[in-house]
Amino acid sequence: QLVESGGGSTHTGGSLRLDCALTTSTYYSNGFCMGWFRQAPGKAREGVAAIYTAAGLTQYADSIKGRFTISLDNAKNTVYLEMNSLNPEDTAMYYCAAGWPAGGMWDRTSEYKYWGQGTQVTVS
Fold this sequence. Notes:
Elements: E1 2-6, E2 8-10, E3 16-22, E4 33-39, E5 46-52, E6 58-60, E7 68-73, E8 78-83, E9 92-99, E10 112-115, E11 119-123
Parallel strand pairs: 2-11
Antiparallel strand pairs: 1-3, 3-8, 4-5, 4-9, 5-6, 7-8, 9-10, 9-11
């Protein structure tokens, strides 16, 4: 359902972009949301950013506000996460997720039905 690409390695201050293609027709259903989560070794998976595909409403974690931007390409059914000013604390496995999170719960892993395979981001 979700095909991720992008990621890789960069140095502090660098930029990377993650792509997530959705292969389901539920893309525009009411309340449908696509999010990015990350999980560093030994830590819980945390919500990074999300976008509600119908309304275009975006949500961001405080730790990445002003540095990361989530966006979508309707024609390609693809969501992007543009990451700038990266630092070593951003190093993690990044996962794309899709579902219908309840109001205010965009950053809860339990609210998402579909998950990508994960892509590694390493900042040194």
